[in-house]
Write a structure and sequence with these properties.
The structure holds two protein chains of two kinds. Helices cover 33% and strands 23% of the residues of chain A. Chain A has eleven helices and ten strands. Chain A has a six-stranded mixed β-sheet, with helices on both faces. In chain A, helix 5 crosses helix 7 and helix 7 runs parallel beside helix 8. Chain A is globular. Chain B has a domain of 200 residues: Orthogonal Bundle (MetI-like fold). The longest helix of chain B is centred in the first third of the chain and has 39 residues. Chain B is flat and about 90 Å long. Chain B starts with 7 loop residues before the first helix and ends with a helix. The chains are: A alpha/beta, B mainly alpha. At the A-B interface, helix 2, helix 4 and helix 7 of A face helix 8 and helix 9 of B.
Chain lengths: 273, 344
């Protein structure tokens, strides 16, 4: 048996990280406007953290970035989202192709309960109708699980159901599942809010490792986490009855160290929210 | 060794004040209104149970008479001819099962597709009208459905059954005797009143039941899993295949079996359609068959005293079959709701 390689050896890796730019994005649920003219650049190979109190539109913004927002009935939006300069809402790019290039990890781990760990990893291929050879599949499963930092824990039980894992492992399985379709971006919607500190630490490690080949945008309520994992940071705020806006964005060190806006300073120092 | 163990009986009396502790009662008991309500609900619930058991017991009691009069051959013998006092229900049991299976073959795909359409594809403002429409199908009295089938549907359906027989007649169940290629209308007599036509009609009648069970389960497929599929770049059909159908498997099986229970017992529509034929046969497209419920409905009035028990025993067999099918169905439906949707 060949020794398990822990280095990320993947010569056939096709895509590289992409840059994402939101331009004047506004969003509505019915007639209720929840986002107002949000513009933000998420540079390639960086972790961009979206912070702010609950209900300020961070998650809505994140879901707009891979067209999950429109799954909600009555949801509307305006503005543009440019993936390497190309508008994902333009007619040329299909929704499914967009979502394949921009993966998403949700707040609650959501592996497919009817599938084994291995099948969960390759679910994206099955869902998009991508055929793959047996040995190629085994390789992809190992590579994706390794990237998500889960391989060593599950390599002997790949055929057990995905739901047999602990919460933190399930979340890393979901990350592996997203990585298996080779996205250029990974959106994470409070991926650690349901996890204990150890699992959170493992996910943060994973984030730090995979950012070398995929751009990451993460929504988090945890200030320390934002400070630890991100290089870029955007602070969202919705004051009473108005739609959410970006108050301030920039390098994480600057947002936390010397915020320009007093509201940002109050928030990052835990004075509200 | 025992000294190391903490023995509570030694400590307790030493304290003096503490008696042996016992759980105190925190149940305040039921008030009078609650008691009355509970009594009423229990009584009515028990009544339904008692009725079912009583019917079963009555039919079972008749079975002992039948066993005495006709022996075990009643169940497996192949000659059913009341005029010669020969009661052997195997051919009719076979007809009953055949009609029910054809009904499933017709009703299952329609119910499944309809349920998927309503839960997944229909625009939200169309959902309620569609659900009402499907449920209305269940409200049409079966005698009306039967008459419609005889007067309208059958004349059209026999062209399809003839086509199947012409092209797949080499498969025994699709074979039809007689001149089925005749240029004049004489071929039609070979196809009138067949298992296939009866099954087709019963199949349409069970769609609402199967559909509403499936719909209920599909609706419960967790949003988080649906979103997981979409976020991976799935098409709608891909999402349905990986999330909705695996989640709803129990409901699909359970709904189908509930429908099967209904199909086994359908009486009037079948009675109106089928051409009575009590010989055992497996050619479903060929005219003539009989089912237990249709047989009882048509013959019961002519029965003399000793034969009554035989008809009721045939009913008992159907009763047992239906209860068995419904019980298995209920197990599947319940399991799917609690187990399959493991929501972390």
């Amino acid at each position: 048996m060949a020794p398990v390689s822990t280095t990320l050896d993947r010569p056939e890796q096709r895509s590289t990280a992409a840059e994402l730019e939101a331009r004047e994005v506004s969003a509505w649920f019915g007639t209720n406007k929840v986002l107002e003219q949000v513009s933000l650049t998420m540079p390639r190979n960086t972790v961009t953290a979206l912070i702010g109190p609950s209900g300020c539109g961070k998650s809505t913004f994140l879901r707009i970035l891979n067209r999950m927002h429109e799954k909600v009935p009555s949801a509307h939006l305006s503005g543009e989202v440019l993936l390497d300069g190309y508008d994902i809402y333009a007619p040329g790019l299909t929704v499914t192709a967009t979502r394949k290039r921009i993966g998403m990890v949700f707040q609650k781990p959501n592996p497919f309960p009817a599938m084994s760990i291995a099948d969960n990893v390759t679910a994206g291929l099955k869902l998009t109708g991508t055929k793959i050879g047996r040995s190629e599949r085994a390789e992809l499963i190992e590579r994706s699980l390794t990237r998500a930092g889960l391989w060593n824990e599950v390599k002997d039980r790949l055929n057990q159901p995905g739901t047999s894992l602990s919460g933190g492992q399930q979340q890393r399985l979901c990350i592996a599942r997203s990585l298996a379709v080779d996205p250029e971006l990974l959106l994470m919607d409070e991926p650690c809010s349901a996890l204990d500190p150890t699992s959170t630490y493992r996910i943060e490690q994973t984030i730090a490792e995979i950012v070398s080949d995929v751009t990451i945008v993460i929504v988090t309520h945890n200030m320390q986490q934002a400070a630890r994992v991100s290089q870029q940071c955007a602070f969202f705020l919705a004051s009473q009855g108005t739609p959410g806006q970006i108050v301030e964005s920039g390098e994480t060190a600057q947002i936390f160290g010397s915020p320009r806006d007093p509201r940002t300073a109050d928030y990052v120092n835990g004075r509200f929210g | 060794m025992t000294l190391l163990l903490d023995d509570p009986t030694e400590d307790a009396p030493a304290e003096g004040v503490q008696e042996q502790d016992a759980p105190r009662s925190v149940d305040p008991g039921l008030g009078r209104v609650d008691k009355t309500f509970r009594f009423t609900v229990r009584g009515i619930g028990m009544f339904v149970l008692v009725m079912t058991v009583a019917i079963g017991g009555f039919l079972g009691w008749q079975a002992t008479h039948t066993y005495h009069d006709y022996g075990l051959k009643f169940f497996y013998g192949t000659t059913f001819d009341p005029s010669r006092n020969l009661f052997q229900i195997a051919p009719i049991l076979l007809g009953t099962v055949e009609v029910a299976l054809v009904a499933l073959a017709v009703g299952f795909p329609i119910a499944l597709m309809t349920a998927l359409f309503i839960t997944e594809y229909a625009p939200s403002r169309l959902k309620s009208p569609l659900i009402a429409l499907v449920d209305m199908m269940a409200a049409v009295p079966s005698v009306i459905v039967g008459v419609w089938a005889v007067k309208w549907l059958q004349d059209r359906a026999i062209f399809t059954t003839r086509w199947i027989s012409q092209n797949l007649g080499w498969i025994p169940i699709f074979h039809v005797d007689g001149d089925i290629d005749a240029a004049s209308n004489t071929w039609q007599i070979n196809f009138i009143g067949s298992v296939a036509i009866a099954g087709l009609v019963v199949g349409l009648m069970i769609v609402p039941l199967a559909c509403s069970v499936m719909r209920g389960v599909f609706d419960l497929a967790p949003l988080s899993e649906r979103e997981a599929a979409y976020a991976l770049g799935s098409t709608k059909w891909g999402m349905i295949r990986t999330v909705v159908i695996p989640f709803g498997r129990g409901g699909i099986i359970g709904g189908t079996m509930l429908a099967l229970g209904r199909a086994l017992g359908e009486t009037v529509a079948v009675l109106l359609i089928i051409t009575n034929d009590d010989t055992p046969k497996i050619q479903v497209l060929s005219g003539g068959t009989d089912t237990i419920s249709a047989m009882i409905a048509s013959q019961f009035g002519n029965a003399h005293q000793g034969q009554l028990a035989a008809y009721l025993t045939a009913g008992f067999v159907l009763f047992v079959m239906t209860i068995a099918v419904n019980t298995v169905a209920a197990i599947f439906v319940n399991r799917s709701r609690s187990g399959a949707g493991v929501d972390v």
